[in-house]
């Protein structure tokens, strides 16, 4: 039996092709874990998948398990179509799940970018702390040098006073 599996153009704008091909929910039963087995043209158990197209949302179908790797062209529906109300409901739910997954991926990307920025800021803070520690070392050196300058200024004043005294003594001795 042939099957039509198309997607709406609204999905194309919402998601990329890879995202549209993935199931919006995890499979509860693995593709080969159904009973009774149905064989494909290769005489192997066919895999059971779930369609998420707009035409057949949530509808299970059978396909050759090796179809992508050179298997046969066997494909068929496992069950009939859903009631139109259920079909519309499944499409809305599928689109909501895909939209939430896309939002989640965007939020994860935003968080990763923010973490990267925070790490960069942490590195900058570490650099500033190192610079501050280095400057703190200069602060002690600055205080030492300021004290030395102050002592030299006092010695300079004392030398001026001594020079003045010596001048007065020399004048007194000469004219005395």
Kindly describe this structure.
The protein has 176 residues and is mostly helical. The chain has a domain at 19-82. It is 59% helix and 7% strand. It is built from three helices and three strands; from the N terminus they run ααβββα. It has helices at 9-14, 17-21, 84-175; strands spanning 47-51, 59-63, 75-77. The chain has a three-stranded antiparallel sheet, with no helix packed on it. A hairpin with a 7-residue loop joins β1 and β2. The longest helix is centred in the last third of the chain and has 92 residues, at 84-175. The radius of gyration is 43 Å and the shape is rod-shaped. The N and C termini lie far apart (140 Å). Residues 1-14 have low confidence and may be disordered.
In short:
The protein is mainly alpha-helical and 176 residues long.
Multimer state: single chain
**Average of per-residue pLDDT values:** 85
Enumerate the strands of the largest sheet in spatial order, edge to edge or round the barrel.
Answer: 1-2-3
Q: Roughly how many Å is the radius of gyration?
A: 43 Å
Query: How many helices in DSSP terms?
Result: 3
As a percent range, the share of strand residues is 5-15%
Largest sheet: 3 strands, antiparallel
Low-confidence segments: 1-14
Tell me, what's the shape?
rod-shaped
Helix and strand string, N-terminal first?
A: HHEEEH
Could you tell me the number of beta strands? 3
Q: Helix/strand/pairing class, anyone?
A: mainly alpha
Q: Name the helicity range.
A: 55-70%
Distance between the termini: 140 Å
Protein name: GRF-type domain-containing protein
GO molecular function, one term: zinc ion binding
Keywords: Coiled coil, Membrane, Metal-binding, Transmembrane, Transmembrane helix, Zinc, Zinc-finger
Domain GRF-type: 40-81
